[in-house]
Each structure stands twice: as C-alpha cells, then as structure tokens.
Specification:
The chain has 111 residues and is mainly β. 7% of the residues lie in helices and 35% in strands.
C-alpha cells in the first residue's frame, strides 16, 4: 500500500505559533554514509548558526563513540529554511565532537 499524501498534508497544514521554530539538527553518522537528525523547539528565529546551542546525543548508537564516554556534541555550523516543514522552521547542519570536544572521526571538516 502507498502513503496517503492527504494525511501527511493534514498534519503539515496544522497551525504553528509564530514565536516557535522547529530546529532540526542534521549530521553524518560514524559510518560516513548515513544522515541523522533530531529536532528541538526554540523561541526565536535565528539569523545564523552561532545563535544556536550545542546539543548532545549518545554516540554509541551512531558508531561515533564506545559505551563509556559516549556523549557526542553537535555544533551548529549552517542553517537553512526547512523545505519539508516550511514556515520559520530550519535545518541545522552540524559538526560532531567527542565528549572531550575533539572532532569525531567522521567530522571531515575538522578531523
């Protein structure tokens, strides 16, 4: 069976408060082949990536850390209007850093 695009459109058309932005942080995982993302709601419309906070996640599930010291940090480096969620929502391109703030092996911009 196919996806009912009408159902998706129903949810995309739901009103969103003008003072809220869905910021989807995007990065390349430890394999170097797959994209990962996570989204947070913020209370302002950022003009540049430096206005956004670093965020973290458990890197052991993305092949970027071992079980101990598995925190990996996301550093926002670029923002773009989100073509999927539209409105004021943004895609945040990120670099990844280990628990000690050194670049991960898959962070090709810094490693």
């Amino acid at each position: 069976t196919g996806t009912d695009k009408g159902v998706l459109q129903k949810y995309l058309d739901l009103p969103q408060p003008d003072d809220k932005v869905l910021a989807t942080y995007c990065w390349i995982d430890g394999t170097g082949e797959h994209m990962r993302s996570k989204t947070q709601t913020i209370d302002f419309i950022p003009k540049e990536a430096s206005q956004l906070t670093w965020w973290n996640y458990d890197g052991s599930s993305t092949y970027q850390a071992e079980g101990s010291n598995s925190d990996v940090y996301l550093k926002p480096v670029a923002i773009f209007k989100d073509p999927f969620l539209r409105g004021n929502n943004i895609l945040v391109m990120c670099e990844t850093y280990k628990y000690d703030k050194t670049p991960t092996e898959s962070n090709k911009r810094q490693s």
